[in-house]
Design goal:
This protein is α/β, with parallel strands linked by helices. The chain has two domains: about 170 residues, Rossmann fold (3-Layer(aba) Sandwich); about 120 residues, no CATH class. The strands form four sheets. The chain has a seven-stranded parallel β-sheet with strand order 3-2-1-4-5-6-11, sandwiched between helices. Strands 7-10 form a two-stranded parallel sheet. Strands 8-13 form a two-stranded parallel sheet.
């Protein structure tokens, strides 16, 4: 195994990264992951090389990338937490890209977001645009995929909407609910990423599904799949945010942030280009209705807490270790 050319995936124990890794292994590729959770249990049965994603140790990071054919990068942060911010995520990405160049990585396939802009008022989209620019200026051949909301069994947004609909008598929609989303299936994103890795040209491509929903229509679809009788009401965005914070205390998590509410209402999760994914949420959700919202998926547990549920600490301060180690935090 050690003698074969290998690919590198950041966050193979996360969400999108796991499906990219599965696809590569099924093709007979040797795969190495750089992860913020190197001791986390996985389903890869020892077929994966595991290295820590250590932005603070540039030399070791470079050596972990040396010889890699393609770097599939899913690293990002969903929201600020502790010392983690979009700005620190950009700087971590700069370190990773510089290390990849120094290590001689042949290609980068990067998972971004639809409609990024360096002028965006939203830190998430502004930061994503900054990382895209770093990659384009790195001199490494690249492919940038821009997904919208990624759905799948482990997808947080759609699953947790279903969980709320199953467990609360009322579900609050921020504003009118007429703003749109274009969900894309995680397997479709993984297949697009791996196909882009086999190409040689620089490219930027939206990774989007074939269906567009208003947020209200999306919630009603999920409610029907979950068998929920919750009352779906429209409320001012500020009230919806407060309600999400109250619910978040019950599950010890951040359910929704102000920026996410405003970004959602800005219609940034829809593409102007033809769909590149083929899987319809309407059909997938029907087949997987028995799984939707059965258990709550916790963002803080996934990225900021250890196996014992405690915050991960760094240097004795209230700084999550994962501030330097987060991976796979796409919407």
């Amino acid at each position: 195994m050690a003698g074969r050319e290998f690919d590198v995936v950041t966050g193979a124990f996360g969400y999108t990264g796991k499906y990219i890794t599965r696809r590569l292994l099924a093709m007979g590729r040797r795969v190495r992951t750089l992860t913020g959770h190197p001791s986390r249990a996985s389903s890869f049965n020892g077929n994966l090389e595991v290295y820590p994603l250590q932005f603070s140790n540039r030399r070791d990071l470079t050596e972990s990338l040396r010889g890699g054919a393609t770097l599939y990068n899913t690293y990002w942060v969903r929201f600020a937490h502790g010392s983690t911010s979009y700005e620190s995520a950009v700087e971590n990405s700069r370190t990773l890209i510089d290390a990849a160049r120094e290590a001689g990585v042949g290609r980068i396939v990067h998972i971004s977001i639809t409609n990024p802009s360096v002028d965006s008022k939203f830190g998430y989209f502004r930061g994503k645009a900054a990382v895209e620019r770093l990659i384009a200026e790195s001199g490494i051949p690249y492919a940038i995929l821009r997904p919208t909301v990624i759905f799948g069994v482990e997808g947080i947004l759609i699953n947790n909407i279903a969980w709320l609909l199953r467990h609360f008598p009322v579900f609050a929609i921020p504003g009118k609910g007429d703003y749109c989303l274009q969900p894309v299936y995680v397997v479709d994103v993984a297949e697009l990423a791996v196909a882009a890795g086999k190409d040689s040209a620089n490219m930027v491509m939206d990774a989007v599904g074939p269906e567009v929903y208003s947020f209200q229509a999306l919630v009603r679809l999920i409610a029907s799949r979950a068998g929920s009788r919750a009352l779906i009401v429209r409320v001012p965005p500020a009230i919806a945010l407060v309600l999400s914070q109250v619910a978040g205390r019950f599950v010890n998590d951040v359910i929704l942030t102000r920026e996410e509410v405003e970004g959602l209402m800005a219609g940034l999760l829809v593409s102007k280009n033809p769909p590149t994914g083929t899987t319809r949420l309407s059909e997938w959700s029907s087949r997987h209705a028995h799984l939707l919202g059965v258990r709550y998926l916790c963002e803080l547990d996934r990225h900021f807490r250890g196996e014992d549920g405690e915050e991960l600490w760094l240097n004795g301060s209230k700084t999550p270790k994962s501030a330097n180690l987060l991976d796979d935090s796409n919407v």
